[in-house]
Here is the input.
Amino acid sequence: MSKKEALFGNFQVKMDCLYEAIVTTCNVNLALEKITYNAAPMGVIFPDSKHIIIRPYLTTNTYKNIQSHRCAGINFTNNIKLFYNSAIKKSKISQNNFLTSKKKKIPLLKDSITRFVVRMEKMEINESKNRAKILCKIDEFENIESNIEPYNRGYFAVLESIIHFTRINILMEQNPEKGKILIDNILEYNSFIKRVYPNSDFEEIMNEIVLNLSKMTRLKIK
Here is the structure.
């Protein structure tokens, strides 16, 4: 039996399935007079047609910002460079990448195919996993008309590598064996991209991921 689905404009999702999005929030910094924004890739789940669940780590700006402001933007995009920059090269995410929602002035990404504005309804803390489970109510959504490229394996491989990379530091401390598995997966994806998508944006991103990986782990990676 297929999972229940919800339709937001022409954006269709299945309930209780994990989707990769970029969560945008206002930074908590009372010392700065100017408001700044944060963008971070994160898996999200639609438990029903009115809510979104996110699970940020307790050490992240996303968690701190939602805890403080109780709201966020959930952005879906097919721009893989935007995923990479928001995860690893945050210096390349500028204020020019953002706009604000019409009603509540929540930061959203311009380059997205669908955007949601959500507010926190309930938060549960899992200290052992160092994560929060945040149930958010959907207040607004905007479905952007966009030409969506056909699915390709390169996008999946690079996206998985980005997600793996963001978890390696934590896993190498908590569970080194799992951390090593993620490193091996990244290296396999890198070989695949070099073979199937040479001289592409995918290869450029993977080269940077592997370079950062070698610096982080002090491994000699070719």
